[in-house]
Write a structure and sequence with these properties.
The protein has 479 residues and is of the alpha/beta class. It is 22% helix and 33% strand. The protein starts with a strand and ends in a 6-residue tail after the last strand.
């Protein structure tokens, strides 16, 4: 008997605004290490890759993500024993129905009609064996042409999740309806009544089944996404749908577009219960719930001192954080922002991010330390007409050939070797050596060595914004 062909699909979009200030639009929560020693994205990839056995042939995962995060995806995939992944880049956000359609089309492009195992990239599971067993059962059911969702067995009256109601024999549950996030009284009634499960956004089905169902319920999304995929171009591991065509795709979630329309239709919608210590870490309250708590219910991460506190989360990233006499409070510290909030109101953190965006402030979008495909920079000081940055360039990497209209720069090498292009000159600088980049002159920084290059950059001028860059050549396609 030939093994079933399984295509993992990891949905790595999303901004994680409720986990601000640790999660930012430029470095969202799925790429953060919030539990264990791997990011949530890496944990998701490893979980679905581990499904392989004698009965299942598991392909390299397809990752669907944001164009802006493409190098974060690649960097984190390189740290895993997974090769050959396709990274499908959404030119703009259109929610999960178009994203999954791109993945299904890409899966079929490799031949056959694999069973898609679809998982968000921002969840944790504490019992991987139970997770794998539930997915194996779901794959066997989906192989017959049905759609199978995984419903999380609830352990509390949670108001932050949508619910699934399922009926029938325990080994053949069928979804009867989806329910929006309830109020507390309704959630309590669901728990008491039984037969209700949290909707985790995990589902299993053949690629052709998804495309047929979408064609029946939302043919407009299918045809528009197909047009964008037909115009896609390949760039190494990246699959880039046509940007103009994808911008015309209606924005809709997979639940609304297909799943909620299935009950009572020709598409059988089954459910497999999942009791595997699941959590989506959607807000700081969830981080507290999965954290290692002391005798007073406190979770402390980083350099944190707590005195007389109870049921409190303190997350210190860059300095000592001391808390005295707090109860049911969250304190999250980063290099450029501190959040203090009532634990019961952790869902409201997203409103702070919306306010930052409305005010045009950068703290909602980027950390002080900004990751780039060639390394990172950390803005350590700034004032009127000057800015100081720490810069790290990976071995063999280089920045673009560029110029600035409004600023000059001084570079001082701290460690490693720098190859510096300034106009027509090419210089090699080592530790403690420096150079000057005049305003308006083409220049480039590269690391020709096998060790990371670290340097201090001092900018001076009338305008120091990151958009004062004119790129002429770039290894990463940003010209």
């Amino acid at each position: 008997m030939n093994p079933l062909s399984v295509q993992p699909v990891v949905m790595a979009g999303g901004s994680g605004t409720r986990l601000w200030p640790l999660s930012r639009a430029g470095y969202p929560k799925q790429f953060l290490v919030l539990s264990g020693n791997q990011s949530l994205f890496q944990q998701a990839v490893a979980r679905v890759a581990s499904l392989a056995d004698d009965a299942l042939h598991v392909r390299a995962p397809i990752v669907v993500g944001n164009e802006e995060h493409r190098f974060l995806v690649l960097d984190q995939l390189r740290e895993l024993p997974v090769t050959g992944s396709d990274v499908v880049l959404e030119p703009c956000g259109r929610n999960t129905a178009p994203a999954l359609t791109l993945a299904a089309l890409q899966a079929q492009a490799h031949g056959g009609d694999p069973i898609l195992v679809v998982t968000p990239a921002d969840q944790t599971v504490t019992d991987p064996r139970a997770f794998t067993a539930a997915l194996h059962r779901a794959v066997r059911r989906a192989a017959q042409g049905g759609i199978v969702v995984l419903g999380i067995t609830p352990d509390r009256p949670e108001t932050g999740y949508g619910y699934i109601q399922a009926q029938g024999p325990a080994d053949a549950l069928q979804v009867s309806r989806f329910v929006e996030k309830p109020d507390l009284a309704t959630a309590q009634s669901y728990l008491a009544q039984g037969g209700f499960f949290w909707n985790a956004g995990l589902f299993v089905l053949r690629a052709s089944t998804w495309l047929r169902a979408l064609g029946q319920f939302r043919p407009d999304i299918l045809s528009a996404t197909q047009a964008a995929f037909d115009g896609a171009r390949r760039d190494g591991a990246f699959v880039r749908p046509d940007a103009a065509a994808f911008a015309a795709v209606p924005s809709e979630s997979g639940d609304y577009a297909v799943m909620e329309a299935c009950p009572g239709s020709a598409f059988a919608l089954g459910m497999e219960p999942l009791d595997a210590g699941w959590n989506d870490l959607g807000a700081w309250e969830a981080v507290w719930q999965v954290g290692e708590r002391d005798a007073d219910g406190n979770v402390a991460r980083g350099d944190a001192l707590l005195q007389g506190c109870a049921n409190t989360l303190v997350q210190a990233g860059h300095r000592l954080v001391a808390a005295v006499g707090l109860s049911d409070v969250m304190v999250v510290e980063t290099a450029d922002a501190v959040l203090v909030a009532d634990r019961s109101r952790s869902q409201e953190v997203k409103h702070i991010v919306a306010q930052l965006t409305e005010d045009g402030r950068g703290e909602g979008r980027l950390h002080r330390k900004v990751h780039r495909p060639w390394g990172w920079y950390d803005s350590i000081d700034a004032g009127e007409r000057f800015q100081v940055k720490r810069i790290l360039v990976k071995p063999g990497a280089s920045l673009s050939l560029q110029m600035h209209h409004h600023r000059a720069e001084h570079w001082i090498v701290v460690s490693g070797t720098a190859e510096v292009t300034v106009g027509d000159q090419v210089l090699l600088l080592s530790e403690n050596q420096s150079t000057y980049i005049p305003l308006g002159v083409k220049h480039r920084l590269a690391n020709p060595g096998k060790l990371p290059l670290e340097l201090i950059e001092v900018q001076s001028g009338s305008y120091l914004g990151e958009d004062d860059i004119v790129r002429f050549e770039d290894t990463y396609g940003r010209t």
